[in-house]
Amino acid sequence: MKKWILSMLLLLVVIFGSVIGFSLFKQHMMEQYFARMPIPSFPVTVEKVSPTDWTPRIAAIGFIEPIQGINVSNEAAGIVRVIHFESGQQVSTGDILLELDADVEKANLRSTQGRLPAVQANLERMRQLYARGSVSRGQLDEAQANYQELLGQVDSLKATIERRTIRAPFNGIMGIRNAFLGQYLDAGTDIARLEDISQFRIRFTIPQTRIADIAVGQKLNIFVDAYPDTPFEGEITAIEPQVNPESGVVQVQASIPNKQGRLRSGMFAKLDVQLPVQTGQILVPQHAINFTLYGQTVYVVEEEQAEGKEEGETVQVARQRVVEVAEREAEFARVTKGLTPGEIIVTSGQVRLSNGSQVQPVEDDALATPESVPQL
Predict the structure, then answer these.
(1) Mutual orientation of helices 103-132 and 137-163 as an angle, nearest 10°?
(2) Which residues touch 100 (CB under 8 Å, ≥6 apart)?
(3) Which of 13, 68, 106, 113 is 20–30 Å from 129 (CA)?
(4) Could you give the CA distance from residue 190 to residue 195 in angstroms, rounded to a whole number?
(5) b/e map of 162-200 (b: 16 or more CB within 10 Å)?
(6) Which region, left, alpha or beta, applies to residue 153 given φ > 0 means left and ψ of -120 to 50 means alpha?
(7) What does the DSSP 8-state code read for residue 53?
(8) What pLDDT does residue 203 have?
(9) How many whole angstroms separate alpha carbon 83 and alpha carbon 180?
(10) Among candidates 110, 97, 98, which has minimal Cα distance to 158?
């Protein structure tokens, strides 16, 4: 019985020993296999860091507004008798645009003016009689009051007639006419739009942290969708003295000359406030920067001695570097810390890299912007 038990124990030891030995042998062979495998080299595109000029800007958006623009309307109700303008016509200050029916007011004015000589003559007689002591001071004052009252009625009727004549308050271009001959217009009816398009303005907001970068008289460029490749030059004319306490922004106003008449009020516009040029700045493509929990990094390509190879034989290795980005514009970012001129950085293909990965620079760049968008 004891021999049988001993035999079984020996058999178990042999079996488990074989399994363990095979596992150790398998692990040893795998280590040798992976040790002999070549280190992978990832294809990437690279770029050399070089100092260049940087023109910082403050980007904003806004809507173009006229310096002077109104909806021409009538102050008094009445029937349209004469229209002196056409849609799109250029008018000058004081030009008559439209006349409403004023026959009754003109008749009353003629009646009042007809009484004026008699009342004035009576006033002169009362002054002569008062000088001789024939009338009292009260009678003279009454004659004077009658004369002044009649003059007031004449002025009132003239003002009433003038209110029924609508004139251009400034030079500009008339819009599309909304009134017609014989039409009855209620007071305040919009007749047409009048705008001075020789100059416009635009209002926009900037963060309060950029107030020190702007000043009255500073130049800026305005871009509109109608002329995407044509910058319109403007100038800052006013800065709001108060910062909005809720949003932390300040409102700025700029003027835009429109000598060629291409701009129109209401256009959506993008604008760039021009700041002084900074020389010797390091610019890198934005897609070369990686965002991590520890900050912003780039991969710097370095030449290092290859492991297991002859002396002097080097490979290119990507090392992760933390950088500080001050500003971004279009496709580039300005790096203020972490890179020095002359270093080589990875611009694409870094998604498969880790710190110390071997890389192989290539010329193809899948992130390059194509000249034309392919049609689907």
Answers:
(1) 160
(2) 74, 76, 78, 79, 80, 81, 164, 165, 166, 185
(3) 113
(4) 14
(5) ebbbbebeebbbbbebbbeeeeebeeebebbbbbbbeeb
(6) alpha
(7) E
(8) 94
(9) 8
(10) 110
Residue 313, SS3 per DSSP: coil
Domains 41-54+278-361 and 58-67+195-274 share a fold: no
pLDDT digits (tens, 9 = 90+) for 261-312: 899 999 999 998 888 888 888 999 988 898 877 789 999 998 887 665 566 6
Virtual torsion, Cα 328, 333, 334, 340, nearest 10 deg? 170
* φ/ψ of residue 364, rounded to 5: -65, 135
| Partners of residue 357 on adjacent β-strands | 318
Distance CA 34, CA 301 (A): 25
The confidence score (pLDDT) of residue 311 equals 64
Closest residue by Cα to residue 128 from 117, 115, 114, 143: 143
According to the CATH classification, is domain 58-67+195-274 in 2.60.40.60? no
Is 41-54+278-361 in CATH node 3.50.50.60? no
- pLDDT of residue 230 exceeding 70: yes
- Residue whose C-alpha is closest to residue 344's, from 46, 45, 52: 46
Pair 180, 82: CB distance under 8 Å = no
Contact 299, 346 (CB under 8 A): yes
HSE-up (13 A, CA, CB side) for residue 139: 13
**pLDDT one-digit tens code per residue, 71-86:** 999 998 999 999 999 9
* Segments making up each domain of the chain, as ranges: 41-54+278-361, 58-67+195-274, 102-163
Quote the tokens at residue 196.
Answer: 């001075």
Residues 6+ apart with CB under 8 A from 239: 211, 214, 215, 216, 250, 251, 252, 253
- At the fourth CATH level, which superfamily is domain 102-163? Helix hairpin bin (1.10.287.470)
The one-letter code for the residue type at 346 is V
Residue 303: what pLDDT? Answer: 85
Distances (CA, A) of 250 to 166, 269, 271, 316, 376: 39, 18, 16, 50, 44
